[in-house]
Amino acid sequence: MPNRRTVFIVSDRTGITAEMLSHSLLTQFDGQDFRRITLPFIDSVEKVQQVVQQVREAAERDAERPVVFSTLIDDELRNALKVDCALNLDFFEAFIAPLEQELNRKSSHTIGKTHGVANFSEYNARIEAINYALAHDDGVKPRDLDKADIVLVGVSRSGKTPTCLYMALQYGIKAANYPLIPEDLGEIKLPQALAPYRHKLFGLTISPDRLAAIRSQRKPDSKYASIDNCRFETAEVEAIFRREGLHYLDTTAKSIEEISSTILHRAKLGRKVF
Question: How many CB atoms lie within 10 A of CB 78?
């Protein structure tokens, strides 16, 4: 078993970008244990010096070089962060210089542009999408679906709510969700409330075993969570999807990120915010 490595994720703002990029890289190393420490708002030499001290202590404690991912804009801070006892991976240094050379212009070196509120129209669009997803969770407002970019349908606990919220937050997509409950099943057709919005519908399904496990956490030993009921509901819902010719996706072994990206691709929806 490889020794545990300490990973520092250092940013002068929220650290979200550095966390996402570093996570994508580290997941490629199966079996390696990482201890991740995110350090946001490192925006002064004094704060960088404190980080460097933590890095040195980790190197001594672990008897292994820590890995330091960083997205610091200021050159002085970036240089101060470099220590010989760690592997330093500076995302901006790796990509900004080649881009400046290719575009024949200097970057702005402005802190916080990725997750700041520099573009108020985009920020407002993101907030509106989140509010819409919250207001249209579990079919709360089926009469207002004309304003939706997409409507997710499926059995209860198939991943509709988190997917809607993720698409709103990350893409600015106004996503509603409508649960297909036992009363909607049996006739193998869409509920009347959804019929006018058929062109906006996208189905989610899930394996009966996984569905039963999720539901059992919420309502153990109930008919709602029984494997027989889960098999019935998923089979009926998938039959509706096929009869109506709807795009649908099995969420059983997929992350929220994968589900959202697949839905946007198949539904031909573009990102509205960055």
Answer: 19
β-strand partners of 87 = 67
pLDDT digit string (tens) for 45-82?
999 999 999 999 999 999 999 999 999 989 899 999 99
N-term to C-term CA, the chain? 40
Contact call for residues 78 and 72 (beta carbons, < 8 A): yes
C-alpha neighbours within 13 Å on the C-beta side of residue 233: 30
Residue ranges of alpha helices (H) inside the chain are 16-26, 45-62, 75-81, 91-103, 120-135, 160-171, 208-218, 227-244, 256-266
The 10 Å CB-count burial string (b at 16+, else e) for 104-137 is eeeeeeebeeeeeeeeeeeeebbeebbebbeebb
A 10 A CB-CB count for 223 gives 9
Residue pair 252/207 in contact by the 8 Å Cβ criterion: yes
**Domains observed in the chain:** 5-103 (3.40.50.2300), 120-266 (3.40.50)
Residue in 269, 251, 258 with CA at minimum distance from that of residue 150: 269
Token pair recorded at residue 14? 């929220």
pLDDT tens-digit series, residues 197-240:
999 999 999 999 999 999 999 999 999 999 999 999 999 999 99
| Residue where the block lists tokens 């010719």 | 245
SS3 per residue for 160-179: HHHHHHHHHHHHCCCEEEEE
The predicted model scores a pTM of 0.72
Q: Which two tokens stand for residue 239?
A: 């039959």
Residues of the chain with pLDDT under 70: 1-2, 109-119, 140-141
